[in-house]
TrEMBL record:
Residue ranges constituting the VOC domain according to the UniProt record: 4-115
Name of the protein this chain belongs to: Glutathione transferase
Keyword field contains Metal-binding: yes
PROSITE patterns with a match to the protein in the record: VOC (PS51819)
Xref: InterPro entries: Fosfomycin_Res_Enzymes, Glyas_Bleomycin-R_OHBP_Dase, Glyas_Fos-R_dOase_dom, VOC_core
GO MF terms, alphabetically ordered: metal ion binding; transferase activity
Gene3D superfamilies found in the cross-reference section: 2,3-Dihydroxybiphenyl 1,2-Dioxygenase, domain 1
């Protein structure tokens, strides 16, 4: 039986650049680094960066992305830091809670989001998506 998310591994084309992006700009904790990879962390998240020269750098058209949590007070500060670093945005927020959608140096789609599953479900119960069904009680 699954018990939760174990880790995320992202293929990167420039390990040092990605360590700076995730470690300094997004402020994940650098745990370990070696010639072809690095481990970083946040409470409840283990992120592995793995050097892969075959990584496609073009922006994929699908909605696949990785979201990080932040609180309402820190959200504007984080977005300002990302904008000051000229990080590219890839989508406008269209859902409950503040969100900022942006790209890492290798084009991985990321999001910082204020809220959680409970707040999303509450908003969806108030204004459900087309065809939406709920299988749990509020």
């Amino acid at each position: 039986m699954l018990s939760g998310l174990n880790h995320l591994t992202l293929a990167v084309t420039d390990l040092d650049r990605s360590v700076v992006f995730y470690g300094e700009l997004l402020q994940l904790r650098l745990e370990a680094k070696w010639n072809s990879g690095a481990y970083l962390s946040l409470p409840g998240l283990w992120l592995c960066l793995s050097f892969d020269p075959l990584r496609r750098t073009e922006l994929a058209a699908d909605y696949t992305h990785y979201a990080f949590s932040t609180n309402a007070e820190d959200f504007p500060v984080l977005v300002a830091r990302l904008n000051a670093a000229r990080v590219a945005s890839w989508r406008d927020n269209r859902s409950e809670g503040n969100s900022f959608y942006f790209l890492d140096p290798d084009g991985h789609k990321l999001e910082v989001h204020v809220g959680d599953l409970a707040s999303r479900l509450k908003a969806c119960r108030h204004a459900p998506y087309a065809g939406m069904e709920f299988f749990t009680e509020p």
